[in-house]
Amino acid sequence: MFRFSQKLNVSILAFVMLLLAGCTEQSRQPEEAAREGEAYAAGIAQWHQEREAKLKAADGWLTLAGLFWLQEGDNTFGSAESNDLVFPAGKIPAKAGVITLSGDSVTTTIAKGVEVQLNGRPVQEALLFAPALDTVPQLTHGSLTWFVIKRGDRYGVRLRDLQNEALTAFKGIARYPASIAWRVEAKLESHPTPKQIPITNVTGQTSQENSPGTLVFTVDGKQHRLDALEEGDQLFILFADKTNGLETYGAGRYLYADKPGADGLTVLDFNKATNPPCAFVPYATCPLPPRQNFLSIRVPAGEKAYGEQ
Questions:
Q1: Residues 6+ apart with CB under 8 A from 71
Q2: Comparing C-alpha atoms, which of 64, 279, 91, 306 is closest to residue 165?
Q3: Is the pLDDT confidence value at 85 over 70?
Protein backbone atom coordinates (compact mmCIF):
# COMPACT_ATOMS: atom_id res chain seq x y z
CA MET A 1 0.00 0.00 0.00
CA PHE A 2 2.86 2.33 0.87
CA ARG A 3 4.59 1.58 -2.41
CA PHE A 4 1.37 2.23 -4.34
CA SER A 5 0.86 5.56 -2.57
CA GLN A 6 4.48 6.48 -3.23
CA LYS A 7 4.11 5.69 -6.91
CA LEU A 8 0.88 7.66 -7.01
CA ASN A 9 2.52 10.67 -5.38
CA VAL A 10 5.40 10.53 -7.86
CA SER A 11 2.93 10.43 -10.75
CA ILE A 12 0.97 13.36 -9.35
CA LEU A 13 4.22 15.31 -8.86
CA ALA A 14 5.31 14.59 -12.42
CA PHE A 15 1.90 15.68 -13.72
CA VAL A 16 2.04 18.90 -11.70
CA MET A 17 5.56 19.63 -12.98
CA LEU A 18 4.45 19.10 -16.58
CA LEU A 19 1.44 21.34 -15.98
CA LEU A 20 3.63 24.05 -14.49
CA ALA A 21 6.10 23.73 -17.38
CA GLY A 22 3.24 24.12 -19.83
CA CYS A 23 1.96 27.19 -18.02
CA THR A 24 5.46 28.66 -17.96
CA GLU A 25 5.83 28.05 -21.70
CA GLN A 26 2.45 29.69 -22.38
CA SER A 27 3.43 32.70 -20.28
CA ARG A 28 6.69 33.01 -22.19
CA GLN A 29 4.95 33.19 -25.56
CA PRO A 30 3.25 36.59 -25.05
CA GLU A 31 6.42 37.88 -23.37
CA GLU A 32 8.53 36.84 -26.36
CA ALA A 33 5.97 38.30 -28.75
CA ALA A 34 6.06 41.57 -26.81
CA ARG A 35 9.86 41.68 -26.95
CA GLU A 36 9.79 40.91 -30.66
CA GLY A 37 7.26 43.69 -31.22
CA GLU A 38 9.36 46.17 -29.23
CA ALA A 39 12.50 45.27 -31.18
CA TYR A 40 10.65 45.61 -34.46
CA ALA A 41 9.21 49.01 -33.49
CA ALA A 42 12.69 50.19 -32.48
CA GLY A 43 14.02 49.14 -35.89
CA ILE A 44 11.26 51.05 -37.66
CA ALA A 45 11.95 54.12 -35.51
CA GLN A 46 15.63 53.98 -36.49
CA TRP A 47 14.72 53.59 -40.16
CA HIS A 48 12.35 56.55 -39.94
CA GLN A 49 15.02 58.69 -38.27
CA GLU A 50 17.39 57.95 -41.17
CA ARG A 51 14.60 58.73 -43.63
CA GLU A 52 14.09 62.19 -42.08
CA ALA A 53 17.85 62.82 -42.10
CA LYS A 54 17.90 62.19 -45.86
CA LEU A 55 15.03 64.62 -46.34
CA LYS A 56 17.00 67.31 -44.49
CA ALA A 57 20.30 66.67 -46.29
CA ALA A 58 21.78 69.23 -48.69
CA ASP A 59 20.48 67.16 -51.62
CA GLY A 60 17.25 66.19 -49.85
CA TRP A 61 13.75 67.14 -50.90
CA LEU A 62 13.35 69.82 -48.22
CA THR A 63 15.95 72.04 -49.92
CA LEU A 64 13.94 72.28 -53.15
CA ALA A 65 13.10 75.96 -53.61
CA GLY A 66 12.06 76.22 -57.24
CA LEU A 67 11.31 74.49 -60.53
CA PHE A 68 11.37 76.53 -63.73
CA TRP A 69 10.48 75.14 -67.15
CA LEU A 70 12.70 76.48 -69.91
CA GLN A 71 11.49 77.99 -73.17
CA GLU A 72 13.49 77.53 -76.36
CA GLY A 73 16.11 80.27 -76.56
CA ASP A 74 17.28 82.61 -73.81
CA ASN A 75 15.79 82.51 -70.31
CA THR A 76 16.96 85.23 -67.93
CA PHE A 77 17.39 84.45 -64.23
CA GLY A 78 17.96 86.40 -61.03
CA SER A 79 15.95 87.83 -58.14
CA ALA A 80 14.20 90.60 -60.11
CA GLU A 81 10.55 89.91 -60.95
CA SER A 82 11.22 90.79 -64.59
CA ASN A 83 13.31 87.63 -65.08
CA ASP A 84 11.97 84.54 -66.80
CA LEU A 85 13.30 82.49 -63.85
CA VAL A 86 12.77 84.39 -60.60
CA PHE A 87 15.12 83.18 -57.85
CA PRO A 88 14.58 84.03 -54.15
CA ALA A 89 14.97 87.71 -53.32
CA GLY A 90 18.05 88.72 -51.41
CA LYS A 91 19.95 85.54 -52.25
CA ILE A 92 21.23 86.38 -55.74
CA PRO A 93 21.64 89.60 -57.76
CA ALA A 94 18.62 91.00 -59.60
CA LYS A 95 20.11 90.10 -62.99
CA ALA A 96 22.32 87.05 -62.58
CA GLY A 97 22.55 85.74 -66.12
CA VAL A 98 20.94 83.79 -68.93
CA ILE A 99 20.17 80.10 -69.40
CA THR A 100 19.77 79.12 -73.05
CA LEU A 101 17.87 76.10 -74.34
CA SER A 102 18.86 75.10 -77.86
CA GLY A 103 17.38 71.81 -79.02
CA ASP A 104 18.56 69.19 -76.53
CA SER A 105 21.39 71.22 -74.98
CA VAL A 106 21.36 73.87 -72.26
CA THR A 107 24.06 76.47 -71.66
CA THR A 108 24.44 79.44 -69.33
CA THR A 109 26.14 82.82 -69.36
CA ILE A 110 26.68 84.56 -66.03
CA ALA A 111 26.33 88.36 -65.81
CA LYS A 112 29.48 90.39 -65.23
CA GLY A 113 30.24 91.00 -61.59
CA VAL A 114 28.17 88.01 -60.42
CA GLU A 115 30.15 85.17 -58.89
CA VAL A 116 28.68 81.78 -59.66
CA GLN A 117 30.69 78.63 -59.07
CA LEU A 118 30.88 75.33 -60.91
CA ASN A 119 32.63 72.56 -58.98
CA GLY A 120 33.98 75.13 -56.55
CA ARG A 121 35.43 77.44 -59.19
CA PRO A 122 34.05 80.72 -60.58
CA VAL A 123 32.53 80.35 -64.03
CA GLN A 124 31.18 82.77 -66.65
CA GLU A 125 29.95 80.27 -69.23
CA ALA A 126 29.08 76.60 -68.92
CA LEU A 127 27.33 73.69 -70.60
CA LEU A 128 24.54 72.59 -68.22
CA PHE A 129 22.91 69.79 -70.16
CA ALA A 130 23.63 67.65 -73.22
CA PRO A 131 22.87 64.02 -74.08
CA ALA A 132 26.58 63.18 -74.03
CA LEU A 133 27.16 64.43 -70.47
CA ASP A 134 27.70 61.70 -67.89
CA THR A 135 26.74 63.97 -64.97
CA VAL A 136 24.61 67.09 -64.72
CA PRO A 137 26.67 70.17 -63.69
CA GLN A 138 25.46 72.10 -60.66
CA LEU A 139 25.95 75.85 -60.24
CA THR A 140 26.10 77.55 -56.84
CA HIS A 141 25.78 81.05 -55.44
CA GLY A 142 25.63 81.48 -51.67
CA SER A 143 23.01 79.09 -50.29
CA LEU A 144 21.58 78.38 -53.77
CA THR A 145 22.33 75.48 -56.12
CA TRP A 146 20.65 74.95 -59.49
CA PHE A 147 20.85 72.41 -62.31
CA VAL A 148 18.91 71.19 -65.33
CA ILE A 149 16.41 68.31 -65.33
CA LYS A 150 14.57 66.67 -68.21
CA ARG A 151 11.03 65.33 -67.91
CA GLY A 152 9.67 63.83 -71.09
CA ASP A 153 10.39 66.40 -73.79
CA ARG A 154 10.60 69.31 -71.33
CA TYR A 155 13.70 70.86 -69.79
CA GLY A 156 13.66 72.66 -66.48
CA VAL A 157 15.92 74.21 -63.88
CA ARG A 158 15.66 72.79 -60.38
CA LEU A 159 16.71 75.15 -57.57
CA ARG A 160 17.90 74.17 -54.10
CA ASP A 161 18.35 76.46 -51.11
CA LEU A 162 20.18 75.37 -47.97
CA GLN A 163 18.15 78.00 -46.10
CA ASN A 164 14.83 76.96 -47.64
CA GLU A 165 11.77 77.56 -45.45
CA ALA A 166 10.59 73.97 -45.92
CA LEU A 167 13.87 72.83 -44.38
CA THR A 168 14.08 75.30 -41.51
CA ALA A 169 10.42 74.74 -40.57
CA PHE A 170 10.62 70.93 -40.67
CA LYS A 171 9.53 69.35 -37.38
CA GLY A 172 9.28 65.70 -38.36
CA ILE A 173 6.60 63.49 -39.88
CA ALA A 174 3.73 61.95 -37.94
CA ARG A 175 3.26 58.23 -38.47
CA TYR A 176 1.17 55.33 -37.30
CA PRO A 177 2.51 53.14 -34.47
CA ALA A 178 4.65 50.40 -35.97
CA SER A 179 2.73 47.15 -36.29
CA ILE A 180 4.29 43.90 -37.38
CA ALA A 181 0.88 42.92 -38.75
CA TRP A 182 1.53 45.33 -41.65
CA ARG A 183 4.73 43.54 -42.61
CA VAL A 184 3.20 41.15 -45.12
CA GLU A 185 4.60 38.52 -47.43
CA ALA A 186 3.95 39.03 -51.14
CA LYS A 187 4.53 36.96 -54.23
CA LEU A 188 5.66 38.58 -57.44
CA GLU A 189 3.72 37.34 -60.45
CA SER A 190 6.24 38.09 -63.17
CA HIS A 191 5.06 39.26 -66.56
CA PRO A 192 5.75 36.55 -69.16
CA THR A 193 7.21 39.17 -71.49
CA PRO A 194 8.75 42.61 -70.78
CA LYS A 195 5.99 45.04 -69.90
CA GLN A 196 5.67 48.78 -69.42
CA ILE A 197 2.83 50.53 -67.63
CA PRO A 198 1.80 54.19 -67.97
CA ILE A 199 2.68 56.38 -64.99
CA THR A 200 1.44 59.98 -64.82
CA ASN A 201 3.15 62.60 -62.67
CA VAL A 202 1.75 65.69 -60.96
CA THR A 203 2.57 67.88 -63.98
CA GLY A 204 0.29 65.75 -66.16
CA GLN A 205 3.08 64.04 -68.08
CA THR A 206 2.74 60.31 -68.71
CA SER A 207 5.66 57.97 -69.26
CA GLN A 208 5.94 54.26 -69.87
CA GLU A 209 7.80 52.58 -67.00
CA ASN A 210 9.22 49.06 -66.78
CA SER A 211 7.20 46.74 -64.58
CA PRO A 212 8.67 43.35 -63.61
CA GLY A 213 5.32 42.05 -62.40
CA THR A 214 2.45 42.26 -59.93
CA LEU A 215 2.82 41.79 -56.17
CA VAL A 216 0.06 39.62 -54.69
CA PHE A 217 -0.55 39.64 -50.92
CA THR A 218 -3.30 38.93 -48.41
CA VAL A 219 -4.73 41.13 -45.66
CA ASP A 220 -7.51 39.83 -43.39
CA GLY A 221 -8.15 36.90 -45.70
CA LYS A 222 -8.60 39.05 -48.81
CA GLN A 223 -6.15 39.07 -51.69
CA HIS A 224 -4.77 42.36 -53.08
CA ARG A 225 -2.55 43.23 -56.03
CA LEU A 226 -0.06 46.00 -56.73
CA ASP A 227 1.91 46.55 -59.92
CA ALA A 228 5.59 47.11 -59.15
CA LEU A 229 8.16 49.23 -60.97
CA GLU A 230 11.88 48.60 -61.21
CA GLU A 231 14.25 50.96 -59.43
CA GLY A 232 17.82 49.73 -59.22
CA ASP A 233 17.99 46.58 -57.14
CA GLN A 234 14.59 47.21 -55.55
CA LEU A 235 10.92 47.23 -56.42
CA PHE A 236 9.16 50.60 -56.29
CA ILE A 237 5.43 50.62 -55.51
CA LEU A 238 3.10 53.58 -55.92
CA PHE A 239 -0.11 52.87 -54.04
CA ALA A 240 -3.27 54.51 -52.77
CA ASP A 241 -5.65 53.33 -50.05
CA LYS A 242 -8.71 54.39 -48.08
CA THR A 243 -6.74 56.60 -45.68
CA ASN A 244 -5.67 59.02 -48.45
CA GLY A 245 -7.03 62.52 -48.02
CA LEU A 246 -8.17 61.71 -44.47
CA GLU A 247 -5.17 60.59 -42.46
CA THR A 248 -2.53 60.28 -45.16
CA TYR A 249 -1.40 62.28 -48.19
CA GLY A 250 -4.22 62.62 -50.69
CA ALA A 251 -2.28 61.50 -53.75
CA GLY A 252 -1.06 58.20 -52.30
CA ARG A 253 2.21 56.98 -50.85
CA TYR A 254 5.41 55.22 -51.87
CA LEU A 255 6.89 51.90 -50.80
CA TYR A 256 10.09 50.03 -51.65
CA ALA A 257 10.68 46.29 -51.40
CA ASP A 258 13.54 43.92 -52.09
CA LYS A 259 13.41 42.04 -55.35
CA PRO A 260 12.26 38.47 -54.69
CA GLY A 261 14.45 35.41 -54.75
CA ALA A 262 13.96 32.27 -56.79
CA ASP A 263 10.75 31.49 -54.89
CA GLY A 264 9.21 34.77 -56.06
CA LEU A 265 8.58 35.93 -52.48
CA THR A 266 9.35 39.29 -50.91
CA VAL A 267 8.05 41.42 -48.03
CA LEU A 268 5.90 44.53 -48.19
CA ASP A 269 6.52 46.48 -45.01
CA PHE A 270 3.80 49.13 -45.03
CA ASN A 271 5.30 50.60 -41.85
CA LYS A 272 7.85 52.05 -44.29
CA ALA A 273 5.22 53.65 -46.54
CA THR A 274 6.30 57.25 -47.16
CA ASN A 275 4.86 60.50 -48.39
CA PRO A 276 5.96 61.53 -51.88
CA PRO A 277 8.22 64.61 -52.12
CA CYS A 278 5.23 66.70 -53.24
CA ALA A 279 3.86 66.43 -49.70
CA PHE A 280 6.74 68.63 -48.52
CA VAL A 281 7.52 70.98 -51.42
CA PRO A 282 5.61 72.08 -54.54
CA TYR A 283 8.63 71.75 -56.83
CA ALA A 284 8.88 67.98 -57.23
CA THR A 285 7.55 66.04 -60.22
CA CYS A 286 6.03 63.16 -58.27
CA PRO A 287 4.68 60.10 -60.08
CA LEU A 288 1.14 59.14 -59.09
CA PRO A 289 -0.24 55.65 -58.36
CA PRO A 290 -1.78 53.98 -61.41
CA ARG A 291 -5.46 53.17 -61.13
CA GLN A 292 -4.83 49.44 -60.60
CA ASN A 293 -2.80 50.26 -57.48
CA PHE A 294 -5.74 51.81 -55.62
CA LEU A 295 -6.32 49.44 -52.69
CA SER A 296 -9.87 48.90 -51.45
CA ILE A 297 -8.76 48.83 -47.81
CA ARG A 298 -7.32 51.20 -45.20
CA VAL A 299 -3.58 50.88 -44.62
CA PRO A 300 -3.05 52.50 -41.19
CA ALA A 301 0.72 52.08 -41.31
CA GLY A 302 3.66 54.26 -42.26
CA GLU A 303 3.68 58.02 -42.64
CA LYS A 304 0.62 60.18 -42.10
CA ALA A 305 -0.13 63.41 -43.96
CA TYR A 306 2.68 65.91 -43.46
CA GLY A 307 1.90 68.51 -40.83
CA GLU A 308 -0.46 66.16 -38.91
CA GLN A 309 0.94 65.89 -35.40
A1: 84, 101
A2: 64
A3: yes
